[in-house]
Write a structure and sequence with these properties.
191 residues, PH-domain like, 2 domains, 50% helix
Amino acid sequence: MNEIVLESSYTVENYIRTHIYLQKRIRPSPIIINFGGSFIGVIALLNLFIVYDAYLKGDSEKAVGLTFVGLAVFSFMFTIVWIFNFTLQMRRYKKAVRKRFDRDSAASASRRIVLDEKGLSEEDRFGSRLMNWESIIGLIETEDDFYFFMPSDIRFLPKRWLAEKQLEPLKNLIKSNLREDAERRFQTAKT
């Protein structure tokens, strides 16, 4: 029977790295983007009036120049809004994780993970959980982690927990037991 047994505990960095990876897969906050888009739209409308005024006065060179300057400003502003959104979300998330990540929490508890033909079972001092292979609808392998997607949950397994000799048997176990219609991906980019 193929069985891979791991014993370790998650760190704050594991959760932050996973959150960053999952945020890249999900679009940014619509509130910030809509606010930023509205702000950029108002500036664009203002620029349009200035360009139109210059065109009506017969200064077409100024109108063309203002159009390009306006496009550059809009691109810059949209980039700033996007970066601000991501930075704000990450700062809030890191602060919340570090605040709640104490030695008595379930997040930092030492755990035993067993991967076998039945699925992925996880046991810690708070209880045990079994994720059957049939319940896993997607798997993504990155350079640092394995992400197991269930319909209402996500589990991640840091590769640094695995010994070098366990990595290939784990991949074979996944190939032989993961359901056929499950999404499988390997991403070489760092998470």
